Hints:
Blueprint: E1 3-10, E2 15-21, E3 24-31, E4 34-39, E5 53-58, H1 66-71, H2 78-96
Antiparallel strand pairs: 1-2, 2-3, 3-4, 4-5
Amino acid sequence: MDIQYTNGPCGYCPVQAEGTISGYPFYFRSRHARWSLHVASSPSGDPLDDDAWSIIEDYPVTGETEEVRRVSAGYATEDECRRFIERHAASFEGTLL
């Protein structure tokens, strides 16, 4: 699996990243209580097009108040974001076979 970052993960509220996964452009965003990864359907495509491959998950926060859970994803660390991207990049690559 080849993940290249052209931007991020960086920032707060939202945390964002862009790059490519095996030559396909991706966009990552982490805000409020969720994080998401969108990968273009072709190497020249846009990861935010309707036909992009996407995964959206609740950000894993436990033992906190509802108010804290609602904003926690916006403060995800760079390492957390990279692990999320790497985990789901493997799933995306499986769709290419």
